[in-house]
Design a protein that fits this description.
The chain is of the alpha+beta class. The chain is built from 3 helices and 2 strands, in the order ααββα. The protein has a two-stranded antiparallel sheet. A hairpin with a 2-residue loop joins strand 1 and strand 2. The radius of gyration is 16 Å and the shape is flat.
């Protein structure tokens, strides 16, 4: 009902575990990763995505790159 939430308010309303699980499901659906037993493995498409994102982070000086 509120339009603004604090970080603690967000943590109370949203499950980070569920958010993470949905992100993984989306990456599987997009073909960037695949599940192999209990593990997740990058696909060729996923590796290309990583390279593009790292290039953009470096180019735009956004940090978070390796």
């Amino acid at each position: 009902p509120e339009k603004r939430l604090t970080l603690d308010g967000m943590k109370q309303r949203y499950s980070m575990e569920e958010k993470f699980r949905r992100e993984l499901d989306d990456m599987i659906y997009m073909g960037r990763i695949q599940k192999s037993g209990d593990f997740y493995v990058n696909t060729a498409k996923g590796l290309i995505h990583v390279k593009v994102m790292n290039f953009l982070r470096n180019y735009l000086h956004l940090g978070g790159h390796q």
